[in-house]
Structure formats: C-alpha cells, structure tokens
UniProtKB/TrEMBL annotation:
<dbReference type="InterPro" id="IPR027417">
    <property type="entry name" value="P-loop_NTPase"/>
</dbReference>
<dbReference type="GO" id="GO:0005737">
    <property type="term" value="C:cytoplasm"/>
</dbReference>
<dbReference type="GO" id="GO:0030488">
    <property type="term" value="P:tRNA methylation"/>
</dbReference>
<dbReference type="Pfam" id="PF12631">
    <property type="entry name" value="MnmE_helical"/>
</dbReference>
<dbReference type="GO" id="GO:0002098">
    <property type="term" value="P:tRNA wobble uridine modification"/>
</dbReference>
<dbReference type="InterPro" id="IPR027368">
    <property type="entry name" value="MnmE_dom2"/>
</dbReference>
<protein>
    <submittedName>
        <fullName>tRNA uridine-5-carboxymethylaminomethyl(34) synthesis GTPase MnmE</fullName>
    </submittedName>
</protein>
<dbReference type="InterPro" id="IPR025867">
    <property type="entry name" value="MnmE_helical"/>
</dbReference>
<feature type="domain" description="MnmE helical">
    <location>
        <begin position="30"/>
        <end position="136"/>
    </location>
</feature>
Length: 139
C-alpha cells in the first residue's frame, strides 16, 4: 500500500485473514504511513528494501514445511517467471552437455530480459497497453 491506497488496509487484511502475508507501505519518501505495517519502504530511494528482503527470506524459511501457501501475483508476473525458469533450464542443459554455448548465452540473456521486465527495468509496448486498459479511467 502507499499513501494513496492506505485507506484499503482493512479490506486487504480481511481478505487475507488466516493467510500468511506481509503488509508493506511503499513511497515512504513521499509521506509517512498512518497505520502499522510489517515493513515501510521506498522503492525509489531503496529505504527499507534490505529489511523487506530479510523478512521475505525469514517468512519462506519459516513456512517451507507447507507447500500450499497463497501468493498474490499478477498473471504477467507468473508468465515471466515461468519463461525465465524454462530459459534457465534450457541454458543449464546446453552448458551441462558442453554444446551450444553461444545459444546457452542467448538463453541466459532471455532470462535476464524476463527479470528486467518483471522488475520494471524495461517495459514492452504490450505492458503499457495492459496498464492503460486495466487502470485508466475515462478513455
């Protein structure tokens, strides 16, 4: 959540009741939170990002015994992760067979490209269209 969506905190908490989740407040560089959060951060300045990483690792380590956990993820993120995993497996297969090292390097570049897109380092035209279609009002 951020200062523009903070008023939805109770709705999120009720929907996630009984599930494991971390409640995050982003854009702390713009405004301080008015509620209590598990982690306060600014993606822009990097403040709190290390704390978030630590919390995620601790949460995963604590919950590794139960493989049926709920994660909220956009379909686009899942597609990108699956593409990266497939490309990484392809790269590892080529390297382990000591063949097609140049093609393996291209697979690795595609893995990086998927993660760049996921992290918002690059935006394909389709993503911009999806954002406009999903979030813009008054077209």
């Amino acid at each position: 959540l951020d200062h523009l969506t903070e008023n939805y905190i109770e709705d999120f908490q009720s929907r996630l009741s009984g599930k494991n989740y971390l409640l995050l407040f982003n854009k702390s560089d713009e405004k301080n939170p008015t509620q209590t959060y598990d982690c306060v951060l600014s993606a822009k300045t990097g403040e709190g990002v290390q704390d978030l990483k630590k919390m995620i690792v601790e949460s995963i380590q604590k919950n590794t015994g139960d493989s049926k956990k709920t994660f909220i993820i956009r379909e686009r993120h899942l597609v990108l992760f699956n593409a990266a995993l497939s490309q990484l497996n392809s790269c590892l297969e080529k390297i382990s067979n000591e063949r097609d090292v140049d093609i393996a390097a291209e697979d690795l570049r595609l893995v990086r490209s998927s993660f760049d897109e996921f992290l918002g380092i690059k935006y394909p035209d389709e993503l911009l269209g999806d954002i406009f279609n999903d979030f813009c009002i008054g077209k």
